[in-house]
Amino acid sequence: xxxxxxxxxxxxxxxxxxxxxxxxxxxxxxxxxxxxxxxxxxxxxxxxxxxxxxxxxxxxxxxxxxxxxxxxxxxxxxxxxxxxxxxxxxxxxxxxxxxxxxxxxxxxxxxxxxxxxxxxxxxxxxxxxxxxxxxxxxxxxxxxxxxxxxxxxxxxxxxxxxxxxxxxxxxxxxxxxxxxxxxxxxxxxxxxxxxxxxxxxxxxxxxxxxxxxxxxxxxxxxxxxxxxxxxxxxxxxxxxxxxxxxxxxxxxxxxxxxxxxxxxxxxxxxxxxxxxxxxxxxxxxxxxxxxxxxxxxxxxxxxxxxxxxxxxxxxxxxxxxxxxxxxxxxxxxxxxxxxxxxxxxxxxxxxxxxxxxxxxxxxxxxxxxxxxxxxxxxxxxxxxxxxxxxxxxxxxxxxxxxxxxxxxxxxxxxxxxxxxxxxxxxxxxxxxxxxxxxxxxxxxxxxxxxxxxxxxxxxxxxxxxxxxxxxxxxxxxxxxxxxxxxxxxxxxxxxxxxxxxxxxxxxxxxxxxxxxxxxxxxxxxxxxxxxxxxxxxxxxxxxxxxxxxxxxxxxxxxxxxxxxxxxxxxxxxxxxxxxxxxxxxxxxxxxxxxxxxxxxxxxxxxxxxxxxxxxxxxxxxxxxxxxxxxxxxxxxxxxxxxxxxxxxxxx
Length: 651
Ligand SMILES: [Zn+2]
Prior knowledge:
Elements (H helix, E strand, L loop, with lengths): L2 E2 L19 E2 L2 E2 L5 E5 H24 L4 H7 L3 H4 L6 H19 L2 H17 L27 H18 L5 H16 L13 H12 L2 H13 L31 H18 L2 H17 L31 H18 L2 H15 L17 E2 L28 H11 L6 E4 L2 E4 L4 E7 L5 E8 L6 E8 L5 E7 L7 E4 L5 E4 L2 E7 L6 E5 L5 E3 L11 E6 L2 E6 L12 E3 L6 E2 L5 E8 L18 E10 L11 E2 L2 E2 L8
Parallel strand pairs: 7-11
Antiparallel strand pairs: 1-2, 3-6, 4-8, 5-23, 6-7, 8-9, 9-10, 10-15, 11-14, 12-13, 12-15, 16-17, 17-18, 17-24, 18-22, 18-23, 19-21, 20-21, 21-22
Helix pairs in contact: 1-4, 1-14, 2-5, 4-5, 4-6, 4-14, 6-7, 6-8, 8-9, 8-10, 9-10, 10-11, 10-12, 12-13
């Protein structure tokens, strides 16, 4: 039964801020004061995000003129001076949201001062009726809402509102919260039941309005979000070159079979639909999204968790169309997928959503930023055939350039989406309900909250994950009343996971959720041991592009071969592996496979009669490294899916 969580909604909750606060659902999210990441894999990324990425992104937004656009609007010169794409305002808002979470997390003064400064500039650009855009509605520009297909005005409001919600939830005093409220009121007045019957080509405002409803209690924001969800899918927007499926206006979300069209749009829309469904008790809508999520995971998702296999329109492909060398797998689609999975997890408690979030976090979201947090992959291909040049650091890049991480893009959604995700990541690890705590993701983290009747509950989670498979949960706060500590056991663990209870009892636990209910004492330890032996994985043969290949995984990590680890002059195109031979861990997270390097042939014609004999090969161990680390040692060729040879035939 969904629990009523209304008491947890409202402004300035004392949790330290949470990105998503449903009023009903199976699980209650915890805030940034209740869960703190203290170190490890994700702690390092949070530190880099705070110390480098926030400043880096702000610097580029100044440099490419996106912040000056607001001043230009105030000064009446935006029609001639405006720079950047029509949605560049949204990236300033997204960065502010990330900074708000960072202030809540650490009290970071750079982030706090930047929010104050940006808010002043933005506030002045808002018009008296709440309209706010640097791209439309001014002399020399298109009229307001004259291009709902591509204009992104409502999309920009969505990110503005999400920034406003983050400021409200984290208790940061900023004029931007009023700016966001005025914009939301303007949207309701303009696009309400009797107003403009349109909606934005790019969803995001749906989930933003629901969250604003959750934080303010103003029902009209929820009603407007529901209107936007229900209006879409009836062929209202223009039939563009990619078809109306591009912006999910081809079929109502209640009737669709799988996520389709532009991947980020589809996933943001689905997340907004879950929010609407949860707040309105619309089980049919929730079931429709669950059905599409299942179909998409089963047939339209890369092994990394990445989504989107068409570059042309940044879109999902048809079922089983998952070519590794054409993977688009936009970083933002991964962020959106985690946002959706989190909402579905909160609504249902089903651990499969946390499974996908883990896969996506470790293999797409962790892959995008460089170690120094100052360059990024926008596209996350699974097979790089040519060594790319080192990126120029003094210019921004086309977004689909995937040879190397680049400092900035002409469309720079991804670096800002990463910034807000890393800053708020602690909120996605653990939940609570009346009876206990549920651990969904493993990280060094301290958890402290209250259960249903105000009883204290806290744990210190310590782990070397994903390099080490042991996760220790030490009880730090408890009461005399028994409560339940739950921990997700990932599907990839098969039957290899062991749970060690506080009394030392060891038991095998299968994929799903393992629980221990006890009157815990402070100091009690529960230990989850996950099997990290590397393993070969094969793809469904209907993914034609992967037939005859295998991929290696270790724990939650997808591995890849990189030319950096091959003899000079050899390329990953020559790699062959023998999946019948065991994989051997080789330190630093890398793994050695038994394999060979194939000869290149005579190079005149790439086809030959099927004689049954393989070409010439030279036996060689093949080093496989975590996919998230690829290209961090310099430009390389790389592949995740490796041609497999039958043992003893070609080696
Ligand atoms: Zn993006």
